[in-house]
Amino acid sequence: MACSLGDLFKSFKSMCYFKNCAVADSEDFHKKHEQALAAKMIECGYEKYVPSNKLHKCDEENENFLNDMPVGTFIEQPFGSQQAPDFFVKGPCSNRIALEAKSSKENYPQYNSGGIKLNYYYVFCSEKTNQSTIFQGCDIVTPEQDRMIAKYTEECRARDIEFNKKLSEIDSHGRGVQWYTRPMITQKGGKEKTDYFSHTNRECIEKRVLDSFDE
Q1: Which of 166, 180, 185, 198 qualifies as a cystine partner to 111, CB 3.0-4.6 A?
Q2: What is the b/e burial string over 52-85, where b = at least 16 CB atoms within 10 angstroms of the residue's CB?
Q3: Based on the structure, what is the number of domains in the chain?
Q4: Residue pLDDT, tens place only, 36-62
Q5: Domain hosting residue 77, numbered range
Q6: Which pTM value belongs to this model?
Q7: What is the pLDDT of residues 81-93, one digit of tens each?
Q8: Residue 189 within a domain
Q9: How does DSSP assign 63-98, residue by residue?
């Protein structure tokens, strides 16, 4: 029988460093972070679940999304390898969560264009400390910041459209050169803000993760 989500995340927190799938060599399959998390879930009694129909990202927020997903199971790469989250996990008490794996040589992760999802759970491991920590997106970025980033991204996209029209007008080589603004979220402000392992809120954030599972 699958353990509680709280116990599962306690086991995630005790894990060492594993490479990100994007940088791990094919022969290092057992060293990849996502595969290590999947193996840990199986060790904790969870079973891999493959939905009968293809899942679509646009349906993620629907009320009935994955209602038929069995308890004590996980779905790996539900929307493909290029779309978050890395997993959906359904605990014994029918609570389903989105789980994202983050791995870095540094003490902070990179979020890149995927952004920080307020309602996602994260497991982050660092090569520098050989440790893992757990957190929710809402403990890294505030709703106000999230809305501001989304609005700014939308404004940039609108400017891209106008800019690309002008590029097309002077495309005398006929090569179709266009510009795409790619969002990139980073964190700055020194170790006291960016280090996920020495941050003053680490223990409080990890506790909030475990307390969030009403089991």
Answers
A1: 185
A2: eeebeeeebeeeeebeebeebbbbbbbbeeeebb
A3: 1
A4: 999 999 999 999 999 999 999 999 999
A5: 5-142+184-211
A6: 0.90
A7: 889 999 999 999 9
A8: yes
A9: TTTTTTPPTTEEEESTT-TTSS-SEEEE-TTS-EEE
The residue written with tokens 């795409």 in the block is 180
The verdict on residue 136 lying in a domain is: yes
Both tokens assigned to 202: 């680490």
Element housing 122 (H / E): strand 121-126
Distance CA 139, CA 126 (A): 19
Residue 163 in any domain: the answer is no
Q: Residue 174 is which amino acid?
A: G
Q: Looking at per-residue confidence, does 98 or 1 come out higher?
A: 98
> Locate tokens 């290029």: which residue?
82
Overall average pLDDT of the 61-68 stretch: 92
Sign (positive or negative) of CA dihedral 55, 59, 60, 64 = negative
Which residues touch 60 (CB under 8 Å, ≥6 apart)?
Answer: 79, 98
The Cα–Cα gap between 14 and 125 comes to 10
Q: How confident is the model at residue 24 (pLDDT cuts 50, 70, 90)?
A: very low
What is the Cα Rg of the chain in Å? 19
